[in-house]
Amino acid sequence: NRIWDMPNANYITEGQFENSEELDSAISESSIWCIHRFYPGFRLLIEKHLSSTLIVVQTWGPDYLKYFPNQTQFLGEETLKQFPNQAQFLDQVTWGFKSWATWKCIHPRALYRNWYWSKIRQRELKLLQSVDAVMFAAPQEATKARNALKINVFEERVIYGPPESFAPCRQKEGIRIQIGHCSDLSMNHLDALAAFSEHTHIRGVLLPISYGTGKIEYVESISQFANKLFPGRVEILTEFLSLDEYHQKCSKYNVLVLANIRQQALGNLIIAVEQGRHIVVHQRGILAEFCKSLGLKFTTLDQVSELTLDTLISETEAEENYSKLASFWNKETNNK
Known about the structure:
About 40% of the residues lie in helices and about 10% in strands. With about 325 residues, the chain is of the alpha/beta class.
């Protein structure tokens, strides 16, 4: 990250200070405070230093997308069909119940709890709107966030550095797919699985769900559906791995499927490009816009029926993907 390469930058890690007073003092001595992921717990410090310090927030997706109205816009058809209550709950927590008909059906205690948390969400959004600049992992996010949340957008690309060296892992034994990177409902695992349900070339499926916000019934549902479609070919990753172990695990699957519509899993997309793997993204997703803007070779979820061993990304195309991504994120490009 080129922010930390700047002269006189002080990189503050978790646990570096014993109390908030020490952090407060460090911020007071700085002209710029760059917050790595939006954290509402910094409310008092942000409010105190806003008039004297330039405050910049680097967002990663979940830390700001939860404030978008209509959270169901980020869910695929199969996910909405199977989990309508969880989808509705996402909207209610953010913005409260919208109709008297809904209010009458809710227990008063649940109604109060919902009202309480929706007010907190709205207060957190006002805090995010107050900072001087907000940066994003993908430039396509900036316009959407500016329009939907009325925040101060900074369109420089600073979160990711260049990808690691190109190390293609060529898998010759059929198509092996990794679906998503966590258990979040917004990963739309069911939509991804449904898209490949009649695919005859699948030799393995990896479901990394070692972290995320997915409830038990959701995790069980995607696990059961995957095993029903691809019996004996599903690997469910429930334990944390080191980064090197995770990279090695992913390299055994020559297709990365990201069915999320909102910005999520961009780091996993970068890993896939480094490893020369084929990329499948949701046709309505921000990652489709991102890949298209760079001219990357990719497939959308509604086109996977056409995916065969012969149409998978070639080594030449994979190397071109890597070069385009590296060019996009190298320091010379970022400093223009």
